[in-house]
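Kindly inspect this one:
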Amino acid sequence: MSIWKNPTSKSYNEIPQSSNGTILLVDDEPLVRVMTGAVLTAMGWSVINVSSGEDAVQMLQHMRERDTEVDMVILDLILPCGMSGLDAVFHLREIQPGVRLLACSGFFGDEIGTSCLKMGFNAMLAKPFTAEDLAQAVYQCVHSAETPAVRDLVSA
């Protein structure tokens, strides 16, 4: 995570936290998972960390089988081995259709960001990010419009 302050972002303390649930954090970089998880935990979230798209799908399926759900998935789009974040999004929506999805990447451009929203992500977070950026993105993801159904995403 970056230590620079984004001059356009709100102060961390000004952002409503809405943090009483569980986030599945998917990133292949251990340091990103640890640092991001620490910030989310400080915000009041319970965090489950996994390192791949396959692990994310497996974890969400495991939780669903036990009648538990996550409130949000923070999903790195570029995962070097196996299933990418872009591939995983459809599987995650099939398992838990209403789950909030936050796309995370260091490679966002206008076209990619628009594509992510059309694919069913609720919000985006560009790497590197600060704690304030993360808090804003989580807030935006939680409070964004409802997500389309998987069948609508496939036909789009």
About this structure: The CA atoms of residues 1 and 32 lie 7 Å apart.
